[in-house]
């Protein structure tokens, strides 16, 4: 797997953070150029089941597609969840090149343990030091305790998570949805960057009980 040389200089930081916080902290370095094989370094990946070559999350795709990195250097202390249901306190630092273009994301995910105040205090101090210069203002994920990211190891699960997140905002089963509603869903998924993943069109078509050609038509609708 080929990665940016500038990005590779951040690999020691992955180990540094994991060594400070300990085995309850997962740290990953993502190459955003290849979103399907995004992870180029990982420590304590057993927490979410991810390893080298795993894809970017659906939330990571949203950040990339919506260019959040242009206004913020980092987003900190939002909630994420593993496939097994464990909650984590997460932070993401945006790594940019000399032209201020995003090339990678450094992600820190720490298991939430209400009984472990020491870990919580350490986590707060670490993110404040590492991610203090976040571009000003409140960053996404700081204003509520909603889980905003699902940590999956497979491309299929990343796509499924993105689709479920959008469908959950509708109080109507797919088989009763109108063309307008399905069009809105597809365009929202597109705005969230999910179609950067190969095969997402097929999965969305199946979920919405329609054809791939119809999905392309929804994407071209104004």
Task: Spell out the key features of this protein.
222 residues; alpha+beta; Beta-Lactamase; 2 domains; six-stranded mixed beta sheet; 36% helix; DauR-like
Secondary-structure map:
Elements: H1 5-8, H2 11-21, E1 25-31, E2 39-43, H3 58-65, E3 74-82, E4 87-96, E5 102-111, H4 117-130, E6 147-151, H5 155-167, H6 179-191, H7 200-207, H8 212-220
Parallel strand pairs: 3-6
Antiparallel strand pairs: 1-2, 1-5, 3-4, 4-5
Helix pairs in contact: 5-7, 7-8
Protein name: YheO-like PAS domain protein
Pfam families: HTH_22, PAS_6
InterPro entries: DauR-like, DauR-like_HTH, YheO
Q: What's the helical proportion of residues?
A: 25-40%
**Which CATH first-tier class of the largest domain would you pick?**
Alpha Beta
Helical stretch tally: 8
**Between the first and last Cα atoms, what is the distance in angstroms?**
38 Å
Low-confidence stretches: 136-143
Q: What's the CATH H-level superfamily name of the largest domain?
A: PAS domain
Counted up, domains total: 2
CATH fold topology of the largest domain: Beta-Lactamase
How large, in whole angstroms, is the Cα Rg? 18 Å
The biggest sheet, with number of strands, parallel, antiparallel or mixed sense and barrel status, is: 6 strands, mixed
| Approximate shape | globular
- Strands of the widest sheet, in order across it, are 2-1-5-4-3-6
């Amino acid at each position: 797997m080929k990665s940016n040389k500038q990005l590779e200089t951040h690999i020691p930081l992955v180990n540094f953070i994991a060594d400070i916080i300990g085995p309850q902290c997962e740290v990953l370095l993502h190459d955003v150029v290849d979103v399907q094989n995004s992870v180029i370094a990982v420590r304590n990946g057993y927490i979410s089941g991810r390893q080298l070559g795993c894809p970017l999350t659906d939330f990571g795709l949203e950040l990339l597609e919506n260019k959040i990195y242009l206004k913020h250097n980092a987003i900190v202390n939002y909630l994420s969840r593993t496939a097994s249901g464990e909650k984590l306190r997460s932070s993401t630092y945006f790594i940019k090149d000399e032209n201020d273009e995003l090339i990678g994301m450094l992600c820190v995910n720490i298991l939430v343990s209400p009984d472990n105040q020491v870990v919580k205090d350490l986590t707060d101090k670490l993110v404040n030091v590492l991610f203090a210069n976040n571009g000003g203002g409140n960053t996404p994920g700081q204003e509520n305790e909603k889980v905003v990211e699902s940590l999956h190891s497979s491309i299929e699960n990343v796509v499924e998570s993105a689709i479920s997140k959008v469908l959950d905002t509708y109080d109507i089963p797919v088989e009763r949805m109108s063309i307008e509603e399905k069009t809105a869903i597809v365009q929202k998924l597109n705005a969230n960057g999910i179609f950067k993943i190969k095969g997402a069109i097929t999965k969305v078509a199946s979920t919405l009980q329609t054809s791939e050609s119809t999905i392309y038509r929804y994407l071209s609708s104004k």
